Amino acid sequence: MMKINIPTDVKEIIDDIYENGYEAYIVGGCVRDSIVGIKPNDYDITTNAKPTDTMSIFKNYKIIETGIKHGTITLIKNKNEYEITTYRIDGTYADNRRPEYVEFTRDIIEDLKRRDFTINSIAYNHKVGIVDAFDGIEDINKKIIRTVGNPDERFKEDGLRIIRAVRFSSKLNFKIDNKTLKSIYENIKLIKNISSERIQEELNKILLSNYPEKIYILYDAKMFDIFEMKNVKMNKNDLAKLKSSKKDLVIRLSIFMYILGDINESKKILELLRYSNKIKSQCITILDNLDNKIIDDKVSIKIYLKEIGHESLNYLLYVKKILDMEFEKKYYDKINNLIKEIDLNKECYSLKELALNGRDLNALGYKGKEIGEKLNFLLYNVIENPNINNKTDLINIINSL
Question: Per the database record, which ranges form the Poly A polymerase head domain (predicted)?
Fold first, then answer.
């Protein structure tokens, strides 16, 4: 019997359910990851006990009624959350996303049958061992992503499964089974029924995986046509650059949008998938400046620091280094050394570091818009000559105008 090590808390939850006359298993991603050799992030438990019975068994614990209509409660044990879901059969899917109703069942196989991929339809407990009715372990050994049953049916039930197939492929470096892949291409339009937030979440996981180049499957299946991005034209070879970069969302998202080939169109991704204002701003700053020439000149670097800030400049330089080998050879290290020198010497490149401020200019008789103009004039002088960043010199410059 295959043995999977499960945490003490999980083992105790399963034992408590058995002691009350029911059965329970860990199921899905935690089983898959344990077999593959990845430490699970969390443990989902499935049982033939109905939600009311489960709540009765664990009445002395804090329970959150997460999705009780669909059979799920969340149990808090030793500050950890465990989702416990009743075996169920899903009803019809009217919106290509969620079942309109669920029926509870006492048969673990019926519950596993409704799941997305064979590698996610394996259950386990320390009493019975593995329950693998759909050859999930065989597919793990063969490194294959395959739907449980007919892929067209699985994807029509939940269009997000199309992106999830690619996500699991990118996480595990598994090949998508030919029948499943064909169905992805044929059913790609189902994605338009999925919320932007859910698509973004899955895309982010693909981009931040060890094999982000698998995102090409979605591009090749024409997912971006659904977003009315007709001019994007990705070069598959450029995806190696995505893979070689740091696992940072801003970096990988910017590189991905750049290699889509049409920056103005690829910026639509940020809006359509509802990225945060911060991520949008950082990615747009990178994309807008990527083709600009950045040279190893301290004044130029300070102007960049003034215009886009420290964090964005670091991002820009790194993305430029990944995309442009010539830039990396010639400038990347030199510019980073200049930034370190600017920081070490506390050289001024922003108004807040200027030795003269608006109140000082107001005291000298300047008003309104004129104050801003004079401060910016002084700032550029200081950027070129750091030694004059003191009140005396700056007032002398103003008085000499």
Answer: 24-146
In this structure, what CATH number is given to the domain that contains residue 45? 3.30.460.10
Question: How do strand 102-104 and strand 88-90 relate by DSSP bridges?
Answer: antiparallel
Under 8 Å between Cβ of 48 and 85: no
Between the alpha carbon of residue 17 and those of residues 46, 49, 82, the distances in Å are 10, 8, 14
Beta-carbon-side half-sphere exposure of residue 267 (alpha carbons within 13 Å): 12
pTM above 0.85, yes or no: yes
User: Quick check: is 342 in a domain?
Assistant: no
Burial-class residue 386 by CB neighbours within 10 Å (0-12, 13-18, 19+).
middle
Contact status, residue 334 vs residue 327, Cβ threshold 8 Å: no
Residue 302, C-beta contacts closer than 8 angstroms, at least 6 positions apart = 342, 347, 349, 383
**Tokens at residue 316, please?**
């820009």
Domain membership of residue 93 as a residue range: 1-142
Burial zone of 398 (CB within 10 Å; 0-12 exposed, 13-18 middle, 19+ buried): middle
Does residue 393 belong to any structural domain of this protein? yes
Q: What is the pLDDT of residues 213-240, one digit of tens each?
A: 999 999 999 998 887 777 788 888 899 9
Ranges of residues in the chain with a pLDDT under 70 are 1, 90-101
The confidence score (pLDDT) of residue 94 equals 58
Using alpha carbons, list the distances in angstroms from residue 223 to 143, 199, 269: 25, 11, 12
The answer as to whether 371 is a domain residue is yes
Side chain identity, residue 7:
P
The rounded Cα 211 to chain-centroid distance in angstroms is: 14
Give the tens place of pLDDT for each residue, 33-88: 999 999 999 999 999 999 999 999 999 999 998 888 788 999 999 999 999 999 98
- Cβ–Cβ < 8 Å for 112, 121: yes
pLDDT value of position 246 = 96
Tell which phi-psi region holds residue 149, choosing left (phi > 0), alpha (psi between -120 and 50) or beta.
Answer: left
Our count of domains for the chain comes to 2
In order of 110, 202, 209, 211, 344, the CA distances from 93 in angstroms are 17, 21, 30, 32, 61
In a domain, 340, yes or no: no
In sequence order, which residues have a C-beta less than 8 Å from that of residue 387 and are 6 or more positions away?
393
